TrEMBL record:
It catalyses: L-threonyl-[protein] + ATP = O-phospho-L-threonyl-[protein] + ADP + H(+); L-seryl-[protein] + ATP = O-phospho-L-seryl-[protein] + ADP + H(+). Its EC number is 2.7.11.1. It comes from Laspinema olomoucense D3b. SUPFAM superfamilies: Protein kinase-like (PK-like) (SSF56112). Gene3D superfamilies: Phosphorylase Kinase, domain 1 (3.30.200.20), Transferase(Phosphotransferase) domain 1 (1.10.510.10). GO terms for molecular function: protein serine/threonine kinase activity. The keyword ATP-binding applies. Pfam families: Pkinase. The chain crosses the membrane at residues 397-429, 441-463, 475-494, 506-527, 533-554. This is non-specific serine/threonine protein kinase. Residues 12-266 form the Protein kinase domain. InterPro entries: Kinase-like_dom_sf (IPR011009), Prot_kinase_dom (IPR000719), Ser/Thr_kinase_AS (IPR008271).
Amino acid sequence: MNDFPDFSANGYKIIRELGHNRAGGRVTYLAVDQQRQESVAIKQFQFATSGSDWSAYRAVEREIEVLQQLNHPGIPKYLNSFETADGFCMVQEYKDAQSLAVPRSFEADEVKELAIAALNILVYLQTRTPLVIHRDIKPENILVSDLLTLYLVDFGFAKLGSEDVAMSSMVKGTMGFMPPEQLLNRQLSAASDLYGLGATLICLLTGTRSVAIAELVDDDYRIQFKHLMPKVSWRWIEWLETMVQPHPDSRFPDAATALAALEPIYVVRTPEVHLSKTHFTATASTLGEQITHTLSIRNPVPDTRLQGKWQVAPHRQDPPHSPDAHAWISFSPAHFKNNNRLDTKIIIDTRQLRANQTYKRELLLENNGIPNPIRIPVEITTAPIPISTQKLPYSSLGLLFLAAGVGGMLALHSIATPIAIALSGFLAWAGLSKLAGKQGFVVKFLLTSVATTLIAAIAGFTLGMAAGASLMGSWATAGTLAATAVTGVALILAASGITKEFGLQIATALSLLTAASGISCGIALQLGFWTPLLIAAAALTGVPVIGVMVWLPIRRSRLKAKYRRSEQHLIAP
């Protein structure tokens, strides 16, 4: 036994209940027309039930009046009606389909099919004379079969013609699916039903229950849903936004226009990310330099909108930071929405990094094209330590030493003592005078005079050692002159090279000491034995030069160590 009412006197046998609205006193049954042996849907309005309203009978009359004028496969036909002891029954075609209020999952392409089907029904209604405005389009009033056949039901709030949709004494419809003009009881139009359909489609695409649609509506009566639909094309989103615009003039004017705009839209296209570089390296030329690198992002897929944001992958050496505020890497813009192409500036601030180090990090590009972020390796080399490398011109000093040594050897066999002294002094004066060219007259005079005297003394000492030596002929004289000239030129070149690094005074001293050391060694080699005087001369001239060569790298190492200690507070590689 069951508690179903007995409609056999009216020619119908109830099979089961399809749905009910107890508060409104309405129950829908699946029944069989016993005469035709066809399935029908019987909607019983129990006006005598506690809590129901007999005035709702006017809505039933309106629905019957509207349905009798309609003939569309997407609208179940009106078949019959009869009174009962406690109310009224309306008989319609039975459609084996569930309402969209029943939780189901639809793909975006399937939702587009349903939208086209619903719009075709609205086009039919809006081309009637007078036009028909449903006024209560929502998931509960749209039935969809397993084959995605769509039916629009419940025309109890429908209005015929523009005069009938004017202001009335009571707002009718469902909150969240009524357009603002209906909520405010203002004039409706062909654009009014589009709002309810758009809201219904948004519920399907975002998985929002119809009773929770208000959670997506902001203070301006705009439905905010884009953040819940990252994988569909921007044109599909824009179409939906137009459907649910609060002001009717901002919507499509009618269903035919909305349908024409929807049909060519691809709804499931996914944007792609094409980067101008998949990794990049950069080297700073100065300490604290800000390096800016431009990376181009391109989305080649039409009708899609690429959205994303930049972040830096966590690294154990970097200080804690939020995803949008890295210690020394930033982006402009960090967030983006782009259809085709976008240039992003990657800004590297090396002020917090240690000198002469290589930093390897990973950039993360999160986007709506793929589920996982794109990883972009970055390699940054900071500027060298700000400690200059002072190098002696070893080649010039070596040449000077050899030339002076040969000159010392040849001078022992020469008779051109006055010429050698004069030429050496002249070359020294000429070279050192050039080096001191930017100095004042007094400084220049003192430097060149002292240098001339020293070289003359060295030459005199060298040639004095040859006072008792035998004559070697004219070739020895020529050799001495040549050796003296080479020594002077080498002295000038060496002093010029050293001056760039150490200044004029140190350059002069090193050049003269090197020349004197070479002459001492040359004389010693020529005489074949080391006298105490020669040993002292070689030591006094050679040891300072060797000391400078050893001291330079030691000094640089100490300065580097001191600088590294000052970098302890900076970020490590």
